[in-house]
Amino acid sequence: MGKKISIFVGPAQEGAVPLVYLHTEAIDLSGLGLKEAPRVSDIEFNTTTQQWEARLLDGTLIATGNSRDELINAERLYIDEKFRKGEEIPKE
Q: For residues 81 and 6, what is the distance between their CA atoms, to the nearest angstrom?
């Protein structure tokens, strides 16, 4: 069986394409025309704590850890859950 992917589509104003959130390239979206891909989070290494940190762009801490790969997964799970609940993801 293939990988499971999550696709979240948010509301759009009349005449606009709705916001779509993906964290995979398993689906070719090139035929949809112009797209925007704003970042909503960052993962950076904290030299003081010697740990990786995943944060939303507003500074909200998502997770910390020794493995960047684990933080990428934690970031995806956190953002997926916010979308499932219909919660806004801060963009700044």
A: 10
Quick: pLDDT tens for 14-50.
655 555 555 566 667 677 677 666 778 899 999 999 9
The CB-based long-range contact list for 80-83 (8 Å cut-off, 24+ gap) reads 80/6, 80/8, 80/23, 83/6, 83/8, 83/10, 83/21
Residue with tokens 């970031």: 75
Give the CA angle between residues 58, 50, 74 to the nearest 5°: 50
Which residue is listed with tokens 């493995």?
67
Q: What token pair was written down for 92?
A: 């700044």
The residues near 35 (Cβ < 8 Å, ≥ 6 apart) are 29
Q: Is 39 helix (H, G, I), strand (E, B) or coil?
A: coil
User: Whole-structure pTM over 0.85, yes or no?
Assistant: no
> For residue 44, what are the β-bridge partners?
53
